[in-house]
Design goal:
The chain has about 250 residues and is α+β, with helices and mostly antiparallel strands. It has 3 domains: about 5-75, Arc Repressor Mutant, subunit A, CATH 1.10.10; about 85-130 and about 205-249, Alpha-Beta Plaits; about 135-205, Alpha-Beta Plaits (2-Layer Sandwich). The protein has helices spanning about 5-15, 20-40, 45-60, 65-75, 105-120, 150-160, 180-190, 210-225, 240-249, and strands at about 85-90, 95-105, 125, 135-140, 165, 170-175, 195-205, 205-210, 230-235, 235-240.
């Protein structure tokens, strides 16, 4: 199972216990705000905003709430001003960790992230010390595959995808960041139902940890993700099958 697939499986399993709708809406709302300030309030002309809106819909954010988030972000100087910051650090077992945040108070966020790393036996690192171990990649997930998976995979490759993993559930299609929208549109035009499409950071290589260290590293990721300011956490460790089974249980 690919590293991204394992993370997705962990997310699905723990999602039952993490139905913190208000916190989730806060994160998605900040993602919308950052996207609007970078590329404007029109989803048709702002690819990042379109992805953020689709993500908001996927977590059942009401249409009125999405509209208000866009309007607040596009107002002249009104409301909170969020900036994007990426923190780099090392977790248990020397695991490389990227923490992507959207914050209106970088001092608060930095202190919170540093404290979490310290309590987990890890530490923050300087800019560039961890980021080189990751790369941006487009990921499209397709769970309701009515056609033959190999056929869908060929469609994706013909559309410009870099790689396809037909052995995961959901099925995953990988693209270059700039090709994500084009591939998604071509798949949907061919009748393929796309569950999600996002540009995410993925590890170039994964490190193996024993179950104990992996559990500690996973806990670090979970605590970081619970911060309102944190949008996404990526780490480069393999999740042992026994830990996946434990989470599933």
């Amino acid at each position: 199972m690919s590293g991204h697939s394992k993370w997705a499986q962990i997310k699905r399993q723990k999602g039952v216990n993490d139905v913190k709708r208000g916190a989730l809406f806060t994160k998605v709302g900040r993602e919308i705000a950052v996207a609007v300030r970078q590329g404007g309030p029109d989803p048709d002309g702002n690819f990042r905003l379109r992805l953020a809106v689709e993500k908001a819909r996927s977590v059942n954010m009401p249409a009125d709430t999405i509209k208000r988030a866009i309007e607040r972000a596009s107002g002249s100087g009104e409301g909170e001003q969020f900036e994007e910051i990426t923190y780099e650090g090392y977790g248990p077992g020397g695991v490389a960790v990227l923490v992507e945040a959207a914050t209106d108070n970088r001092n608060r966020t930095a202190a919170d992230v540093r404290s979490i790393f310290s309590k987990a036996g890890g530490q923050l690192a300087g800019a560039g010390s961890v980021a080189w171990q990751f790369e941006p990649r487009g990921v499209i997930t397709i769970s309701a595959v009515t056609a033959d998976r190999d056929e869908v995979g060929l469609l994706a490759i013909d559309a410009g995808a870099d790689d396809v993993d037909t052995g995961t559930e959901p099925m995953e299609v990988y693209t270059g960041p700039g090709d994500l929208e084009s591939v998604r549109r071509q798949l949907e035009a061919a009748g393929v139902k796309v569950d999600s499409a996002e540009v995410t950071m993925t590890a170039k290589q994964h490190v193996e940890l024993d179950a104990g260290k992996a559990r500690q590293a996973l806990r670090l990721v979970e605590v970081l993700e619970d911060l309102d300011d944190v949008q996404r956490v990526t780490a480069n460790f393999e999740i042992p099958e026994e830990l996946l089974a434990e989470v599933a249980g």
